């Protein structure tokens, strides 16, 4: 891992729980794969993963990490911009854990979706929604829940929503919001 990876990777037990939600899914797209923590867990539970990151160093680290876990054959790593690639992607689930702006997100009383990078949460969700209605978003623990869950109304009919507060050793680490019906063979 690199320095950024240590604070940006999803804790393993949380990533495993997120992967269980879509167990059996055909293809999971990890739009901001970073060092591969989520992609590895998805590869253990689903048939195939497309892991995308704009940083070639992160993709190399993710590939190395996948080899350590023995799942490299189940993941296609792509160096690229999710927003440019999205119109060409097909998948059953899109996982979104975009950059939160580093550790400074904790200083905000309420983290709003416009603070996500490289684009705001609404734009990000709409791009993912063009691929599939089954979307997982991993967001800061101080995210504005009303604003985040309102994304379900961008679909007609609105998507089912499940909210999960994520803890590691009793400490709140983030919020996972599951959109869609999560019914996979």
Automatic annotation (TrEMBL):
InterPro entries in UniProt: RNA_cap_Gua-N2-MeTrfase (IPR019012), SAM-dependent_MTases_sf (IPR029063)
Any one of the GO CC terms: nucleus
Catalytic activity: a 5'-end (N(7)-methyl 5'-triphosphoguanosine)-ribonucleoside in snoRNA + S-adenosyl-L-methionine = a 5'-end (N(2),N(7)-dimethyl 5'-triphosphoguanosine)-ribonucleoside in snoRNA + S-adenosyl-L-homocysteine + H(+); a 5'-end (N(2),N(7)-dimethyl 5'-triphosphoguanosine)-ribonucleoside in snoRNA + S-adenosyl-L-methionine = a 5'-end (N(2),N(2),N(7)-trimethyl 5'-triphosphoguanosine)-ribonucleoside in snoRNA + S-adenosyl-L-homocysteine + H(+); a 5'-end (N(2),N(7)-dimethyl 5'-triphosphoguanosine)-ribonucleoside in snRNA + S-adenosyl-L-methionine = a 5'-end (N(2),N(2),N(7)-trimethyl 5'-triphosphoguanosine)-ribonucleoside in snRNA + S-adenosyl-L-homocysteine + H(+); a 5'-end (N(7)-methyl 5'-triphosphoguanosine)-ribonucleoside in snRNA + S-adenosyl-L-methionine = a 5'-end (N(2),N(7)-dimethyl 5'-triphosphoguanosine)-ribonucleoside in snRNA + S-adenosyl-L-homocysteine + H(+)
GO terms of molecular function: RNA cap trimethylguanosine synthase activity
Pfam families (UniProt xref): Methyltransf_15
Family under the similarity heading: Belongs to the methyltransferase superfamily. Trimethylguanosine synthase family.
Entry protein name: Trimethylguanosine synthase
């Amino acid at each position: 891992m690199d320095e950024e990876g240590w604070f940006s990777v999803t804790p393993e037990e949380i990533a495993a729980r997120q992967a269980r939600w879509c167990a059996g899914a055909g293809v999971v797209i990890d739009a901001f794969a970073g060092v591969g923590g989520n992609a590895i867990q998805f590869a253990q539970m689903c048939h195939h993963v497309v892991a995308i990151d704009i940083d070639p160093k992160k993709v190399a680290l993710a590939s190395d990490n996948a080899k350590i876990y023995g799942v490299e054959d189940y993941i296609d790593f792509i160096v690229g911009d999710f927003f440019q690639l999205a119109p060409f992607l097909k998948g059953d689930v899109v996982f979104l854990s975009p950059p939160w702006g580093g550790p400074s997100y904790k200083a905000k009383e309420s983290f709003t979706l416009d603070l996500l990078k490289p684009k705001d949460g609404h734009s990000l969700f709409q791009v993912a929604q063009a691929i599939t209605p089954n979307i997982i978003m991993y967001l800061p623990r101080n995210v504005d829940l009303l604003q985040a869950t309102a994304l379900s109304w961008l679909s007609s009919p609105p998507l089912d929503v499940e909210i999960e507060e994520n803890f590691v050793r009793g400490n709140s680490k983030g919020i996972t919001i599951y959109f869609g019906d999560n019914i996979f063979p």
